[in-house]
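Query structure, 159 tokens:
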């Protein structure tokens, strides 16, 4: 009879250890998930700070499965207080309304001065066309990437 009770006690002790391990495992897992969510939000906030604090020089335009390197004075700068963005398209100054929420960004009411600069006009036209399609952004390694969903449209370097 005593032998049976020792087995029962050992089994009970083993169950308690198993339960404690499971509790520890799930608690640790929950902590990791919550920490990752917090870090993701912090990353979005840091990306927004970089977005607003930086002059972004246009480096590449992606269109129709081609990438065109840009070596002009084209840039964009975001203004949080005004809810706008503006810069230079390569020849003309431009501006727009810019709505930024989390890692989403949209440009509307894009306008520019109307000079014609033969050497860079095609770059500027494509730049403005792609800018109107943008719906999200990513800042990574001092680079700004503007996308339409998953399609990369424009690449900028911190200036």
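Result returned for the query:
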């Amino acid at each position: 009879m005593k032998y049976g009770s020792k087995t029962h006690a050992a089994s009970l002790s083993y169950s308690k250890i198993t339960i404690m391990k499971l509790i520890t495992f799930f608690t640790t897992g929950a902590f990791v998930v919550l920490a990752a969510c917090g870090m993701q939000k912090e990353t979005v906030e840091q990306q927004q700070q970089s977005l607003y604090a930086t002059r972004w020089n246009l480096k590449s335009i992606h269109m129709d499965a081609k990438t065109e390197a840009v070596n002009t004075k084209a840039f964009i700068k975001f203004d949080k207080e005004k809810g706008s963005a503006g810069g230079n398209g390569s020849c003309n100054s431009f501006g727009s309304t810019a709505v930024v929420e989390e890692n989403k960004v949209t440009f509307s009411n894009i306008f520019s001065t109307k000079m014609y600069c033969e050497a860079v006009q095609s770059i500027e036209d494509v730049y403005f066309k792609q800018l109107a399609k943008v719906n999200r952004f990513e800042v990574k390694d001092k680079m700004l990437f503007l996308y339409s969903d998953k399609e990369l449209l424009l690449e900028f370097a911190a200036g």
